[in-house]
Specification:
- The protein is an all-alpha fold.
- The chain has one domain.
- The protein has 3 helices and no strands.
- Helix 1 packs antiparallel against helix 2 and helix 1 packs parallel to helix 3.
- It is rod-shaped and about 105 Å long.
- The relative contact order is 0.11.
């Protein structure tokens, strides 16, 4: 099996694994799987050298499409992560406002100065 074929198999397996972990909402597993993929991909890319056969060129085109799919998955993952972080920040702020409702009040309402001479 050539390095290009091993890379294609790795990418297909990673897409399946990331889909499964994304559906399970397993963020830590998703990140670990992606890091493992990057490490393995780096090793395999170092083994790929020209000249390429026609079969390797066709697989290369398929690899580009698979890479696009992985990038879309990662984009969706980071978008949901950003949304979750934003919601958590809003929730913390709301809880703080609920616990200390008059903390940010800086007006002097209700103050009366009696001026007698």
């Amino acid at each position: 099996m050539t390095a290009v074929q091993r890379l294609k198999d790795l990418m297909e397996n990673t897409i399946e694994k990331l889909d499964r972990l994304e559906q399970q909402k397993n963020r830590e597993g998703f990140i670990e799987a992606f890091e493992h993929f990057l490490d393995e991909r780096e090793k395999l890319l170092q083994d790929i050298h020209p000249p390429y056969t026609d079969e390797e060129k066709q697989m290369g085109e398929q690899l580009v499409a698979l890479d696009q799919t992985i990038q879309e998955q990662i984009g969706r993952f980071f978008q949901t992560l950003k949304t979750s972080m934003r919601n958590l920040k809003k929730q913390k702020h709301s809880n703080k406002k609920y616990n200390h409702p008059y903390q940010d009040v800086s007006t002097m309402d209700g103050m009366f100065f009696d001026k007698r001479n």
